[in-house]
Specification:
This protein is of the alpha+beta class. It is built from 13 helices and 15 strands. The longest helix is centred in the middle third of the chain and has 21 residues.
Amino acid sequence: MRKWTVLWAALTGSMMLLAQGCTAGDAFDLRHIISEESGTEAERTTEPRGYEPEQPQDSGTEAETLTEEEPAREVSELYYAYHHLDEDRQKIYLEMFDALSAMQSGVPLSTLDKSVLDEVFACVMNDHPELFYVDGYQYTEYTLGSAVTGITFSGTYSMTSAEVEQTGLLIEQELAVCFGEVPLNEDEYSTVKYLYEWLIGHTEYDRNVENNQNICSVFLQGRSVCQGYAKAMQYMLQASGIQCVLVTGFTNGERHGWNLVRVNGEYYYLDPTWGDASYALGGADDLPDSFVPSINYDYFLVTTDEITRTHAIEKVVALPECTAVDDNYFVREGLYFDSYDADRLALVFDSEATKAAGCVTVKCSSDEVYELMVQTLIESQEIFDFVDKRGESISYTSNDEQRTISFWNI
């Protein structure tokens, strides 16, 4: 018998100005599986006899008939990763999920192949942000001679069952006010936008906060890092009936987490961490409100092409090619330009929304339009043709990858 411990992926935050990721170290990489040699992360034990999973007492047509008649388990479409596994892995997924939900140990798995365990466990965790108390898992491999005869699964947990129940109640209490105002009867874009803004408005980027790899840090402490942001976003969207999955990968060589979400039937990427000014400013406190817009929409419902300019995706399961733009923030809010249009710009800068916010961001459809907009509005200072502040200053920032330009103090 061999017993192994696998630590669940962890993300921690970077504090650099315009920090481009959350770093975690090798523990995050699910491909770095503990080797069969003994070490600090693994406990190895052996027994002289094998383990045989329990078999039905009776074999024959009656048992076969009962198995055939057992109804298939339905799993909600909310859980993206599950539905992109093959049938065998789906069965293991449900075995793991049931064990983790009940905080069980020593659960037999329907596989003798330990190489699939990391993949399936990652899918469970990427689908289920409510498993905030799960740190990792252990598996025990039973052998008879050189033949593997069984594998059992146990979760590793950061809380007792009583603590899990109490924490869950506190999280639900925190969300009650939020969901009292969420526009659930509107189209899904409005719901996603509201929850995105609520999350950013109630959370500060802080790599030192406790539980920053799960939703507790967001909902109970109001501080987190990228994985906490992404899981909290997922938790709220799933509660609203919107499919969302955690996506992990790299930004500028550092580990990072964000979301894939289905909105009005189309898939988009969404990065709530990069939407928070406190992240972009390296977690700095006590900055004046006028220093930078508090919410950035550059990575709100974007395409695969747009997200992969800055994010390198680790694909645990197949991910769709996101091409839709209908529910991109800038398209929906009338801030998307496919040409330099002075009349439309005048309407944008003169709108009640821009005046109330004191800031605005516009997005360009191509590099050519973006370069023309930068040259005209910034380098030639024609922004003052739209904002009457001559003799004063207007703050701005531009994002070459997303082709956006933001103006504030206007």
